[in-house]
Structure to design on (472 residues):
């Protein structure tokens, strides 16, 4: 893990009209970390990831990724990012190979043919490279989406609930791909509302509720069976604070 | 510049390749355009002279309505599967995405025109290919229409009422290009002297340049959250 954080977020506020979604959120992630961003629905996880991925601008606060400030240096940040959301961001009427070739051209990937072959091998879709993406199962589409996100070899991978809508087998295959992707030293930030989905993958667990990070813990700090208790306690504490603040 | 052109080419290639497979967009545009021609053919029982006076109007109504279907679909494909986010995440100038989409939309309208013109010529017993100037007007009119239409479709697609919103936004803005295109087309078909057609051609040229420039400048703000 490097000394300087790869992702640095200070006092981030995001408003949509009168609704405050993120409230003074502080966050840091270092090179090689796999951060699970846990929180219930509506906590602000997707909004936070959209800001990190430069798809949405902060209302206030400072966001830096790999030394580049958002939104001012968004183009430089985008080059260093790979993003996977619950939608695959793939074209159903193009083949797996054509989708990767298109994104490869958008990211100016060198030796694109070799890279496409390597990525399809990585995500276990080499045998389906000439098949239309619309004929793929949801699990296969999500694996290809991860392939698309790492095609240009980004330093940071942002995953927004990538397991949404997948069955158990597809989740396990996706996890296997994620482990391989993370093992290459990338910084990964993955949101989830389900601890069981991320407990084997992540090296750090941050709990985001009511628009701010309320608790953070490293995997080494706590035995596996204690994580669930930690997550529940964090949620209850945030809920209690919310009720207290609301009175 | 190399990166810009590469991204532009990639977006055009992607749209054409996807359409070649699905034929979703072109078939909808073509079916609609041909239906409009048939309906006008049966609704208007015209003598030769009257035909010449309504031809340009019928043609442009056909292009504009069929084009609106195409514009809506072209951006909806990006939005429905989250692909618009995929495009916006790429480290390329966002105007390259705009121009890529606009060029693809322009080519789709040209394909529709290439089929509509001979069908019209047969149905209405009028040779539309006798006047090469008409083809120039179609190219200029389609360029202005697509320049504004692609921008407004990118705006409308962000809303739940996109199918209704696009025509409401688009038709008032393209009124100058529509009037100029109808007048210039009509001028060529009726064999009017160039001095009477030229002002409409000039208006089309000015519209094309101004609205392409405006779209170039504001596209990034339109697609940003």
């Amino acid at each position: 893990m490097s000394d300087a954080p790869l992702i640095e977020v200070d006092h981030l506020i995001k408003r949509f009209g009168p609704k405050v979604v993120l409230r003074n959120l502080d966050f840091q992630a270092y090179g090689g970390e796999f951060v699970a961003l846990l929180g219930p629905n509506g906590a602000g996880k997707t909004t936070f990831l959209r800001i990190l991925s430069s798809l949405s601008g902060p209302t206030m606060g400072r966001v830096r990724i790999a030394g580049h400030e958002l939104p001012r240096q968004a183009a430089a940040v985008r080059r260093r990012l790979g993003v996977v959301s619950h939608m695959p961001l793939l074209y159903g009427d193009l083949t797996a190979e054509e989708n990767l070739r298109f994104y490869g051209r958008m990211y100016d990937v060198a030796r694109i043919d070799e890279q496409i072959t390597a990525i399809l091998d990585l995500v276990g879709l080499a045998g389906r490279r000439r098949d239309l993406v619309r004929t793929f199962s949801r699990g296969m589409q999500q694996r290809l989406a991860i392939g698309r996100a790492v095609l240009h070899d980004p330093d940071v991978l942002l995953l927004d609930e990538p397991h949404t809508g997948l069955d158990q087998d597809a989740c396990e295959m996706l996890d296997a791909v994620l482990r391989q992707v993370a093992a290459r030293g990338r910084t990964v930030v993955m949101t989830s509302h389900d601890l069981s989905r991320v407990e084997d993958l992540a090296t750090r667990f941050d709990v985001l509720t009511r628009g701010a990070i309320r608790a953070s813990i490293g995997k080494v700090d706590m035995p596996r069976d204690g994580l669930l208790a930690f997550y529940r306690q964090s949620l209850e504490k945030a809920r209690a604070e919310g009720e207290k603040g609301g009175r | 510049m190399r990166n810009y052109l590469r991204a532009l080419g990639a977006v055009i290639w992607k749209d054409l390749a996807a359409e070649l497979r699905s034929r979703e967009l072109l078939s909808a545009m073509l079916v609609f355009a041909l239906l409009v021609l048939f309906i006008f053919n049966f609704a208007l029982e015209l003598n030769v002279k009257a035909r010449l006076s309504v031809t340009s109007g019928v043609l442009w109504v056909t292009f504009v309505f069929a084009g609106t279907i195409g514009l809506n679909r072209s951006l909806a494909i990006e939005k429905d599967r989250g692909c618009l986010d995929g495009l916006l995440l790429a480290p390329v100038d966002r105007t390259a995405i705009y121009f890529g989409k606009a060029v693809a939309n322009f080519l789709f309208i040209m394909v529709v025109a290439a089929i509509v013109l001979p069908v019209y010529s047969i149905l209405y017993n009028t040779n539309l290919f006798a006047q090469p100037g008409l083809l120039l007007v179609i190219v200029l009119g389609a360029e202005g229409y697509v320049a504004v239409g692609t921008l407004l479709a990118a705006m409308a697609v962000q809303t739940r009422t996109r199918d209704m919103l696009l025509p409401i936004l688009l038709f008032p803005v393209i009124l100058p290009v529509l009037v100029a295109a109808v007048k210039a087309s009509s001028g060529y078909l009726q064999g009017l002297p160039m001095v009477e057609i030229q002002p409409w051609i000039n208006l089309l040229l000015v519209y094309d340049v101004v609205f392409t420039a405006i779209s170039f400048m504001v596209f990034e703000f339109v697609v940003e959250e």
Remarks:
- The longest strand of chain A covers residues 5-16.
